[in-house]
Design a protein that fits this description.
The complex is a heterodimer of chains A (283) and B (275). With 283 residues, chain A is an alpha/beta fold. Chain A is 29% helix and 29% strand. Chain A has a single domain, classed as 4-Layer Sandwich (Nitrilase/N-carbamoyl-D-aminoacid amidohydrolase). Chain B contains twelve helices and four strands. In chain B, strands 3-2-1-4 form a four-stranded parallel β-sheet, sandwiched between helices. Classes of the chains: A alpha/beta (283), B mainly alpha (275).
């Protein structure tokens, strides 16, 4: 099976969900014209990133009677979609979230489990922490989603791997930093290094969709990527400009790679569990 | 001495910084910029970045000499104006500031310098309205950290593309962007009085200061670690004191909190809110 994948690295208007929705629908049309099966938008693609006190006013629920999601759900009849948004639960906690939509239905919502609250980041002040890392079934097989800081930690991708995800969909609103004499920003090099490493270590597809544009002095660098189960780069979007990056995931590659390199077969989860129990119960 | 490399990828720097200028100006529905061109390096670089962002016809360079300003300053600004082929104006500030100077025969150079810097801010913001462009800042990271500026004077702007570049990085990017050599090669000066140079007034060179600031600020060295890395203790003390004492120049004035929601504390929005 082959999936036509598209990664949309868009700019957003900060706090203007209506304008961002219009851009999503425009990109969805473009991707449809290219016979895309799955289109992945970046983190908080419907809202913008440094929301601060805008959080409550931009929150939406991924349900059919929501004025924003009714359009996205309808669009997902033609191709599967991942969008970034602020999710509000029934008790009014706000999460940085990604929704996977397919066939006009919501398939899965991931709430960001690691909220960076250091340096230039202040997410923990404004958002609730997600408390689950789950793979889920799609028409392309089992998939997992993570959001930015989630994959700066090794455990969420590892958990998705063990939970059966063969395709990991990462999304970010990654502010560029660490400009020096190297070809790329330090933040871009770090993210590309770890996403490639996850694809290699987990012999899985790992794709990353990162936004572009500016919010005050912060600059988002784009550079969408897709890696195959050998850790080879399948596609690389441009830096610093809006684009859709198209590539094809040949799912048969999972079988070929894992026949050669049975890291998943040999993973000793019981050993991990035993040692984690020991480490966590030590005190 | 620790090996400190402040070299930039200048292509990437130019793209990010000119993209920033374009974004900040176009997102509020404008397309133009106004820059006070002193004849020095910082304003030359900001101006070149603005031209890269907006196109030559959309950047107004304003020269604002005082009668005692060096002729070189005017000439060097002209070199850049000619090279970039941009709209420009020369508005002399002598007649605006002299009446204030004359109110006090004992007025110090520092007071005069501050008054001139603030007068230039007034002229620039007025031209901003005439030209329908935003004022692009020209302060670099070194002088912002050291507080080597006039509050509400040269530090005033709508956005600052070069405020995260140390002076030596400004020089490097300026070379890459073909700023005329006389501007790059001359000693940095606020040109507020004859023979003034930044380095004479500060008591150390930008190259030394940049390396130390890079360790203290970017690499989070403690002052003691900076001394262990080879910097003179007195120099480290001077610089760390300057950084701390000039924090007020880097901030909006604090508002006394009495209500449940106060601007600056718990009323938090980016400037780019809604755009």
């Amino acid at each position: 099976m082959k999936i036509n994948l598209a990664l949309a690295q868009i700019n957003t208007k900060l706090g203007d969900v209506e304008a961002n929705l219009a851009k999503h629908l425009e990109y969805i049309e473009k991707a449809k014209a290219e016979k895309t099966d799955l289109l992945v938008f970046p983190e908080l693609s419907l809202t913008g990133y440094v929301l601060q006190d805008l959080v409550a006013s931009v929150a939406h629920k991924p349900v059919e009677d929501d004025p924003v999601f009714k359009h996205i759900l309808a669009a997902s009849r033609d191709l599967d979609l991942v969008v970034g948004f602020v999710d509000e639960d029934s008790r009014h906690r706000f999460y940085i979230a990604s929704a996977y939509l397919s066939g006009g239905k919501l398939v899965h919502v991931h709430h960001k489990v690691y909220l960076p609250t250091y340096g230039l980041f202040d997410e923990g002040r404004f958002f609730a922490w997600g408390d689950a890392v789950r793979a889920f079934d799609t028409r392309f097989g089992r998939v997992g989603m993570l959001i930015c800081e989630d994959f700066w930690h090794a455990s969420p991708p590892y958990l998705l791997w063990l939970d059966g995800a063969d395709i990991m969909l990462f999304s970010s609103a990654s502010p560029g930093r660490g400009l020096n004499d190297k070809e790329k920003l330090e933040s871009a090099r770090w993210v590309e290094r770890v996403t490639k490493a996850y694809a290699s270590m987990f012999t899985s597809f790992v794709v990353h969709s990162n936004r572009v544009g500016y919010e005050d002095g912060l600059h988002f660098w784009g550079g969408a990527t897709a890696f195959d189960p050998n850790g080879e780069e399948l596609a690389h979007g441009p830096y610093n400009e809006e684009a859709i990056t198209y590539t094809q995931l040949d799912l048969n590659q999972l079988r070929r790679t894992r026949a050669r390199l049975p890291l998943l077969r040999d993973e000793r989860t019981a050993l991990v569990q035993k040692e984690l129990d020991r480490i966590l119960n030590r005190g | 001495m620790a090996d400190i490399n402040l070299t930039l990828n200048t292509d990437l720097a130019r793209d990010i910084l000119s993209g920033f200028i374009k974004s900040e100006i176009t997102r509020v529905g404008l397309s133009r910029a106004v820059i006070g061109l002193s004849g020095g390096l910082d304003s030359a670089l900001s101006c070149a970045l603005a031209v890269a962002a907006l196109g030559r016809e959309n950047v107004l360079a304003v020269r604002m000499p005082y009668k005692a300003s060096s002729k070189d300053s005017l000439d060097h600004a002209q070199l850049l104006i000619d090279q970039l082929d941009i709209p420009n104006k020369t508005i002399e500030i002598t007649d605006m500031v002299e009446p204030l100077f004359q109110l006090d025969p004992d007025i110090s150079n520092m007071r005069k310098g501050n008054i001139m810097a603030r007068e230039r801010m007034i002229v620039l913001y007025d031209q901003s309205e005439v030209f329908k462009g935003l004022v692009v800042g020209t302060s670099n990271k070194t002088e912002i950290l050291l507080g080597y500026s006039t509050l509400y004077g040269d530090s005033a702007s709508a956005m600052n593309p070069i405020g995260d570049l140390y002076k030596t990085q400004v020089r490097q990017l300026s070379r890459a962007m073909n700023i005329p050599a006389p501007i790059i090669d001359k000693p940095p000066s606020a040109d507020l009085w004859a023979d003034q140079t930044d380095e004479k007034e500060l008591g150390f060179t930008y190259e030394e200061a940049d390396k130390l600031l890079y360790l203290l600020v970017d690499q989070r060295y403690s002052p003691q670690e900076a001394v262990e890395a080879g910097f003179n203790k007195k120099f480290v003390d001077t610089v760390t004191t300057r950084i701390r004492r000039n924090q007020f120049k880097r901030m909006q004035p604090p508002i006394a909190k009495v209500s449940n929601r106060t601007i600056g504390y718990d009323f938090l929005y980016l400037r780019d809110w809604g755009t």
